[in-house]
Design brief:
alpha+beta; disordered N terminus; 34% helix
Length: 202
């Protein structure tokens, strides 16, 4: 069962609007999207393998889709934080991630995807860990959620590396793939704090 107490905590938050803080990791800069991202976004997102692992990304992914998505970010239409994932040394756009309030999870849910050229380098784990830290540092949420398709071992590995616990299986609607089976995961604030303590000791 998904804990719905997170909604109460989220309702106490001030309107996040588009006040999205930049997040820095060892190799990445997670920043708010801007209009200059549109062309590169359309290029790296136009991949069936990526679209079919998400719920809201169409395929083919056209320039108009990228314009609509970036525009929605600039207008603050997302209930949470949406980040462009860029390489710290070059500023090159390699994917997107977000920490958004989702009805299907009854609270904050992290999500992420990378262009195919950047798979397997640990970037997704780096970005996801930054999102988790942002979630617990900037909100009162006692629990955050993650969802991945049952046929997506890469995302499953990232989610588990971030300390999430498997909750159960479900189904969601995917724009590119239709109704698909998924796995649900959660991470509690106490578990996150324990992981942070272990990292400092290590």
């Amino acid at each position: 069962m998904i804990d719905t107490t997170t909604d109460t905590a989220l309702s106490r938050q001030t309107d996040m609007g588009y006040d999205t803080p930049v997040l820095l990791t060892e190799r990445l800069v997670l920043r708010p999207p801007h209009e200059d991202d549109v062309e590169e976004l359309a290029k790296i997102a136009n991949n069936r393998q990526i679209a079919e692992m998400t719920s809201r990304m169409p395929f083919p992914y056209r320039l108009s889709d990228a314009e609509a998505f970036v525009g929605s970010c600039l207008r603050g239409e997302h209930d949470g934080y949406v980040y462009a994932i860029t390489l710290a040394d070059t500023g090159h756009l390699i994917g997107f991630c977000g920490l958004e309030k989702r009805t299907r999870s009854a609270g904050f849910e992290i999500g992420f995807w990378l262009g195919e050229d950047y798979w397997g380098a640990g970037y997704a784990t780096e970005a996801a860990n930054a999102l988790v830290d942002q979630a617990f540092r900037s909100t009162d949420a006692e629990q955050i959620h993650a969802v991945c398709r049952t046929v997506n071992p890469r995302s499953r590995n990232v989610i588990r590396k971030c300390g999430f616990t498997f909750v159960g299986k479900d189904e969601i609607d995917s724009v590119a793939a239709g109704r698909v089976p998924v796995e649900r995961y959660t991470l509690s604030r106490p578990a996150w704090l324990e992981r942070k303590t272990e990292r400092r000791r290590g």
